[in-house]
Give the backbone structure.
Amino acid sequence: MDFSITPDQTLMQESLIRTLEQSAGLDRVRAFAADPSDVGSDIWAALTDFGLPGLLIPEAYGGLGLSLLDAALMSEALGRNVTPAPFLGSCVLGPLALQLGGNGDQQTRWLPRIAAGEVRVGLGLSEPIAGARDGAGVRCEAGRLTGTCLFVDDGLHADLFLIADQSGQVHLVAGDAQGLSRQAMTSIDLTRRLGRLDLVNVAGEPLTASPDLLTRLRDAAWVMLAADMLGACDVMITKAVAYAGERRQFGRVIGSFQAVKHMCAEMAAEVEPARSLVWYAAYAFDAAPQEASLMAAHAKAHLSEIGRFVARTSTEVHGGMGITDLLGLHYWFKRLGLGRQWFGGPERVRLAAAQAQGLVA
């Protein structure tokens, strides 16, 4: 049996990497990171032309109708290029939420516009998934939402939000809803725009009341973040090996020293087995739903730990140059740092895995 990805999937991933090299190279990432007012419209336009917003949307609504494994391969490519784009909400969780929990009117109203790249979807799901901080959280009373959402993906510029209340019910909230205010949040990762939403008696449209909806969205988010971290790790290893083959010390390239060889080999040995874990977690989301939550948790927690190891080790191989802006290594380092904690750090995710197996209450 062949357990690898298909030639078409490989071709699609390679095509996206080439697109990103042209539209979102490191110089463009630097410019985005340096200017908080930059919304990356040109990058989003390139991704829309590629078809990324419609990746998971059925063909009947103008999308491609592909699987979460395809989305994971795209997320991996975005992580490789530290691409500043609202992929998680607009291309994955937004379409999934509407398909899994939206009624016919909601799907008809939003899915074609999302597939066309006209509507960007922000994510106010962090509190019920990763735990509330600083008193954040949203309560729903008589169909009205009040509270605070932190670490909202695309919080400043999204046209539509997925908001989860304290009970786990997911709501659609228009970006221009009365009583909704936004402000920027600063994180270590400047390639992602995070925001804070404050809601005061805001009207929301509830999606299905099924308790499984938020779990499915959480699982998809964990897989996408694991894939993004996998792509970032690949680049950091590649950069470390290339630098070790160029940098000379004591009359020799540093890659000839056994200690440096071991550092590079250890990074590769950690990442390669993780690749199949991420791919299988993405595959299981659609094909083996009984395993999906556990595999998503394993992928997110494992890549969080491997990402920290690779980020540190690659920087050490580069020595003092590793922390300079000249090489830009810090963009991958910080992207891995946020990916580790976003939607739950590895400790919290491992707890969810233990609960899924009945090991703890």
The CA atoms of residues 34 and 149 lie 25 Å apart. The chain has a mean pLDDT of 94. The chain has three domains: 7-115, 121-206, 212-356. The first strand starts at residue 121 and ends at 124.
